[in-house]
Amino acid sequence: MTLPPPATPDPTPEALLRTHPALHEDARRGLKLEGVALAEIAAQVGTPCWVIGAQTLRQRARALKAAFGDAGLKPSFHFAVKAQDHQATLTLLRQEGFGGDVVSGGELQRCLRAGMDPQALVYSGVGKTDDELRLALREGIGQINVESPEELARLNALALELGLRAPVALRVNPDVDAGTHDKITTGRAEDKFGIAAPEIIALYRQACETMPGIEMRGLAVHLGSQILTEAPYRQGYQRLAELVTQLRTEGLAVHTLDCGGGLGIAYRDEQAPEPARLARVIADILGPLEVELKIEPGRWLVGPAGVLVSRVIGTRAASEAAQALGSPDFVILDAGMNDLLRPALYEAWHGLLPVAPARGAESDWQEVDVVGPICESSDVFARNRRLPPLEQGDLVALLDAGAYGSVMSSTYNTRPFCAQVMVDGDQWRVIRPRQTLEELLAVESVPEWLAEQA
Ligand SMILES: Cc1ncc(COP(=O)(O)O)c(C=O)c1O
Ligand SMILES: N[C@@H](CCCC[NH3+])C(=O)O
């Protein structure tokens, strides 16, 4: 399913500020993330620049844990590292009691470097190589979510080779449509993720009876990302509960259920379910099974904690003749789809706020297309967005860039990776300097047979 274009008018800056409590407007210093003026960061670090709020991360981590506690649950929390993999973020979340949900040997090693206990790590993903599985086993990972019969057999052989047992959950594909964007739904039969529910019982039994390298712990499910309703969760967990009952009836032990992540956030005016609602759904459906529960949140934790600060390179107003042909007015930013890919990849809507305090009279506001400098027509951050007049040099903040932002950036068009900053209340630090062109080019070499003759 591709999401239809929004039917409601875009939220005003005031509405965006209300729904984004990490951001504040300071009449003198302009937009702030937590206690730090974004203009101050931009002046010192340059643009584009990712900024993430540590206080906001802590608050969200605590709110999420409290929501499950209030529902009478004590799951273990595994941050989906793919959403934001910076060492500072992982360190902070480890301090808040989070482990990691990883999908590669690289993410696994990131978590270990950030001091996470290997036992607090869950490894998911459809394509784990032998080397990655060996690494996970040697490090003593807490759980591997196996996504195919072939992977299970391979993991069994690798574990035996190492003289170890692999703690495993089978990832179920429950054939549930999460109702999110087509490209980020993962639980339908046609999606590549997980093992079809009708295959689970036989495979589970086979592992328990014939695979000594596998320690079968339970089941896992993850339906997709940016999920905005409760219904798919109910359906998915119901299927999981049915499978648990069936397994137990057949005398097979189930110790753990991994509930996945996927909780959506309000980028625009979406009514995303609160974590408390997800916790209640889980408590209702999986609570009575008396198993250890795991939760793998990504976007909900980090998305609203981050912004991408960018500067207007220039503007291009359409002449009357061009307007008649359908040409919009453009505001061209120094951030591009190579930095924040989500709008180009998923037609995702991101809030956009000018950083400067004064916005002028509303009658001066204009409808513009906000674009990046990349040579792709999809390099568009916002279409027909009503904004205060923006000029060359003005700063803007793209909101909700904390999840699937910096991690998905590339150096397309030879644009070095942006700087990253962490704010914590009133203090801030550069946590990754802007990549220089020299650094970007230093890793390239020209084969000697191409070398010019002197
Ligand atoms: C297995 C798994 N768990 C958790 C997540 C986290 O999802 P989200 O960031 O939507 O919470 C993902 C990503 O969709 C995932 O693939
Ligand atoms: N990259 C996606 C989310 C994918 C989640 C990974 N399973 C996004 O930006 O919305």
Automatic annotation (TrEMBL):
* Entry keyword annotation includes Membrane: no
What does the record give as the active site?
C375 (proton donor)
Listed binding positions for pyridoxal 5'-phosphate are G262, E296, P297, G298, R299, Y404
Q: Which cofactor does it need?
A: pyridoxal 5'-phosphate
* Enzyme Commission number, as recorded: 4.1.1.20
Q: InterPro entries this protein is in?
A: Ala_racemase/Decarboxylase_C, DAP_deCOOHase_LysA, De-COase2_CS, De-COase2_N, Orn/DAP/Arg_de-COase, PLP-binding_barrel
What keywords would UniProt list here?
Amino-acid biosynthesis, Decarboxylase, Lyase, Lysine biosynthesis, Pyridoxal phosphate
Question: Keyword Amino-acid biosynthesis, does the record have it?
Answer: yes
User: Tell me, what does this protein do in biology?
Assistant: Specifically catalyzes the decarboxylation of meso-diaminopimelate (meso-DAP) to L-lysine.
**Protein name per Swiss-Prot or TrEMBL:** Diaminopimelate decarboxylase
Q: Which organism is it from?
A: Oecophyllibacter saccharovorans
The lineage, from the top, is: Bacteria, Pseudomonadati, Pseudomonadota, Alphaproteobacteria, Acetobacterales
Gene name tied to this protein: lysA
